[in-house]
């Protein structure tokens, strides 16, 4: 029996920073742009299934997951808060991320790159909720550590969590009775639960968050920039070939976007945290003048 590698299809949302910054004409949700994402996502699914033995990809649609989460709300009078960076219902955002050091070791939970510091976010949320308990949304739960940390953090700041709702949960049973999910999987049947956007170079809210003394940045889930065996469960002996295949998919994205933009797509057209990662690794001039296609070629050459 094949184990499942679970993806949420994010419907071209990962391309938003690139579309806006590269001045692609106002066609964000045009068939042309959707086709760019569909080719990338479909290719990524094929690469995962070709790379990992006895593994098949299970796909959940982002809009259907959002509807399913809303249907689970027990008390609609409570304020709705989301940890999901791709929340489509306009809930109050609590912008958290796991932070890693340059060695790839987990440092803890911190602010999402580009968001206010956590004390300010929590103070704003406390004022907005007006002392009420809240309903907290998340896209998925794998180990449950982020959910646990988030609820403890909120409660320390006087914000009670009445219900925690996830789109996808991988667990034998909920560790906390307040946690419910739209889709639940037995961990014995799941190989990995991942966000496809993390494999898109410069994508919106995409990549591993690296924290260093002078700031935070994001790197794509591609060797050698991220340990994809640890972060995405890609077998170590196949990590290089997997990364080469994913880089080829990214190259196709940037060729297509350059055609739509009628110009080059630069590193600084991607998300700001990705551009800051390039600046850290290659220097400020690279961030300013390197194209995305050049980045892909440099990455290929390093493998």
Index terms:
303 residues, 12 strands, globular, alpha/beta, three-stranded parallel sheet, 10 helices, five-stranded parallel sheet
Q: Mind summarizing the main beta sheet?
A: 5 strands, parallel
| C-alpha termini separation | 33 Å
Rounded mean pLDDT score: 90
Q: What order do the helices and strands follow?
A: EHHEHEEEEHEHEEEEEHHHHH
Query: Taking strands numbered 1, 2, ... along the chain, how are they ordered across the largest sheet?
Result: 4-3-7-8-9
DSSP helix fraction: 25-40%
Judged by helices, strands and strand pairing, the structural class is alpha/beta
Please give a structural write-up.
This protein is α/β, with parallel strands linked by helices. The chain is 38% helix and 23% strand. It contains 10 helices and 12 strands. The strands form 4 sheets. It has a 5-stranded parallel β-sheet. The protein has a 3-stranded parallel β-sheet with strand order 2-1-10. A two-stranded antiparallel sheet has the order 5-6. The longest helix has 23 residues. The radius of gyration is 19 Å and the shape is globular.
Layout of SSEs?
Blueprint: E1 3-9, H1 16-21, H2 31-51, E2 55-61, H3 62-71, E3 80-82, E4 92-93, E5 96-100, E6 106-111, H4 118-129, E7 134-141, H5 145-156, E8 161-170, E9 179-185, E10 190-194, E11 208-212, E12 215-219, H6 228-232, H7 239-261, H8 272-282, H9 284-289, H10 292-301
Parallel strand pairs: 1-2, 1-10, 3-4, 3-7, 7-8, 8-9
Antiparallel strand pairs: 5-6, 11-12
Describe what is shown at a glance.
This protein has about 300 residues and is an alpha/beta fold.
